[in-house]
Design goal:
This protein is of the alpha/beta class. The protein has eight helices and nine strands. It is elongated. It starts with a strand and ends with a helix. Bound molecules: adenosine-5'-triphosphate and magnesium ion. The site of adenosine-5'-triphosphate has 18 residues, from helix 1, helix 3, strand 5 and strand 9.
């Protein structure tokens, strides 16, 4: 049995067509189920549903052989033992710095100044500002990140942007782009080498599905 870890929402919705193209039917109505272990049309493949940021953890410990996780999640996850065989090209977005429209960002972020940034992505935010020689204080929030600069928790945010609609609706403007993100198929290194004949063909079918 191969176990593939997925998060509900866009990763689940965008992975299903890739699985279908790889010859694995998944009943779409299953997405509405509360079950956390889901069968697929392939009796040797099951899906498990976990929080997006937990996908690398399940795969790292071998509780799942494979997983689908955004580059954002993978950069933030410090664990080892993960192999990234395929960029699935789904869940595309970018990691950006944003701040309120009226905020004089360029002045506030120069060396010597001390900006406060709210984000779910502590590592990414710290590394981005450190790599560009600017000091910031990073405050961890777990959601509704766009609110932070509106009520004085922070001057700006580091978060994912796709269409920019959430930023716009909250009066925020994108100031810097940090990297482009898409979801990757990840594999447990030990599973992949010990059960290569079982897991390898599925990985290859998914890679071919992406190229179509
Ligand atoms: P949770 O909602 O459980 O806090 P999450 O916000 O990380 O977790 P999703 O919103 O489902 O979960 O996002 C899952 C992944 O999809 C992210 O890790 C990222 O790679 C990608 N993603 C996030 N926002 C967008 C977006 N607006 N457009 C496209 N892809 C996105
Ligand atoms: Mg979300």
């Amino acid at each position: 049995m191969i176990t593939l870890a997925l998060s509900k929402g866009r990763i689940f919705d965008e992975t299903l067509p890739l699985l279908a193209a790889a010859g694995i039917a998944v009943d779409a109505s299953i997405g509405a189920s509360r079950k956390l272990i889901l069968p697929t049309g392939d009796p040797d493949l099951r899906l498990i549903i976990v929080r997006a940021s937990d996908v690398p953890t399940y795969v790292q410990y071998g509780a799942a052989d494979l997983g689908v996780a955004g580059k954002d999640v993978l950069l933030e996850h410090s664990g080892e033992g993960l192999y990234q065989p395929v960029d699935l090209g789904i869940a595309r977005c970018r990691m950006s710095v944003a701040a309120p429209a009226g905020f004089r960002y360029a002045e506030a972020v120069r060396p010597g100044a001390r900006l406060r940034i709210a984000t779910k992505y502590l590592q990414v935010a710290r590394e981005h500002f450190a790599a560009t020689g600017r000091q910031v204080e990073v405050v961890k929030v777990n959601g509704s990140v766009e609110l932070a600069p509106l009520v004085g928790l922070a001057h700006g945010i580091v978060d994912l942007v796709a269409t920019g609609r959430t930023l716009r609706e909250n009066g925020l403007v994108e100031r810097e782009q940090i990297f482009d993100s898409s979801a990757r198929l990840i594999a447990n290194r030990a599973s992949l080498s010990l059960r290569a004949d079982e897991i390898g063909p599925l990985v290859e079918r998914m890679a071919r599905a992406v190229d179509r």
